[in-house]
Amino acid sequence: MRTSPHGSDELVGPPDARRPGPDADEPPVLRAVGLRKHFPVRGLRNHAVVHAVDDVSIDLHRGRVVALVGESGSGKSTIARLLAQLVPATSGQILLHGTDATATGRRAFGRYVRRVQMIFQDPFGSLNPIHTVRYTLTRSLRIHQGRLRGAELEAALDELLTRVQLTPPARYVDKFPHELSGGQRQRVAIARALAADPEVLLADEPISMLDVSIRLGILNLLRDLRDRLHIAILYITHDIASARYFADRTMVMYAGRVVEQGDSESVTQDPAHPYTQLLISSAPDPDDLAARARGARGEAPSLVRPPAGCRFHPRCPFAVDLCRTEVPPLLPVSDGREAACWGYSQRDGRPEVGSVLEAYGARPGAAGEVDR
């Protein structure tokens, strides 16, 4: 693992001079290869486990945003916790600058979190309600950048609050979390992460607990940090529209597996996998209310006993025997696009993939077939 100490002079220095701009050809800052996480289930025989994440690989490049999108329970937050090393992986590898970064002790974990920081979903839950903003940020600065004192510490605090657009800093530094709005609390949480001067931010649904009116402000703040500090960002969300707005690439998860990935514009405007089609069409459309009635039939599968083959096949109107027996790999759809669907393979007996909503609408009596 490559580490280097950063003093407060770098924290308050010109951000654009610290790191070069993003380069698509440079190696990723953080890479996950074949991540798998199985949680044991108590009370069940035969050592049953929850297949929360299976064979997920992610590359995070500095100055770029990767969105991880999916419904609740798809494994998105588990991946964030695996990359933050808050929970150990069942198998797979985490590489930081190409070197195995598995933290095997307290000091190794401390070095890792100076480079990889996490922003949690609920800012009120992630901030200690009995401590002021000053205490929260001071503690983070001293942990990651040494024991700052006096004017040097005040300058670092002012710089952090200014960086997350909480100005003037004196108005916020001595407030408690309950005295701040939801958006202000999330900005403090982001400032706490920036105190480590990280190279990677893992943002686990950072706007889902906020009022709609202030969500865009937080996304614009993260975008500004990406551009000025060239930080790699993993943006986890169930809102695929915000992924299109904010992320360079989008990965779609279903039942612990990645089912589609590619540039955000293509994935959101021309979805290839049947599940991605349903995810995008799930937003209400006042001009086509009937489409809502043709939504996906069935429910997400049990991750204790996941179905064989493609995990989406019980709900897919195009599923054939191949889909029910073999797990599809990520197959090329177009330049830079991949989908885990046998319909894009050259296998015999592959399904013919079309519009899921049209298939549901054309087959009103198919619910029994899809749910079996």
TrEMBL record:
Species lineage: Bacteria, Bacillati, Actinomycetota, Actinomycetes, Micrococcales
Disordered, as annotated region: 1-27
SUPFAM superfamilies: P-loop containing nucleoside triphosphate hydrolases
Organism: Cellulomonas gelida
An example Gene Ontology biological process: peptide transport
Keyword line: ATP-binding, Nucleotide-binding, Transport
Pfam family, one: oligo_HPY
SMART domains xref list: AAA (SM00382)
InterPro entries assigned: AAA+_ATPase, ABC_transp_ATP-bind, ABC_transporter-like_ATP-bd, ABC_transporter-like_CS, Oligopep_ABC_C, P-loop_NTPase
Family listed: Belongs to the ABC transporter superfamily.
Protein name per its UniProtKB record: Dipeptide/oligopeptide/nickel ABC transporter ATP-binding protein
Listed PROSITE patterns: ABC_TRANSPORTER_1 (PS00211), ABC_TRANSPORTER_2 (PS50893)
Residues covered by the ABC transporter domain: 30-280
Source domain of life: Bacteria
Molecular function terms from GO: ATP binding; ATP hydrolysis activity
Keyword Nucleotide-binding attributed: yes
UniProt key word Nucleotidyltransferase: no
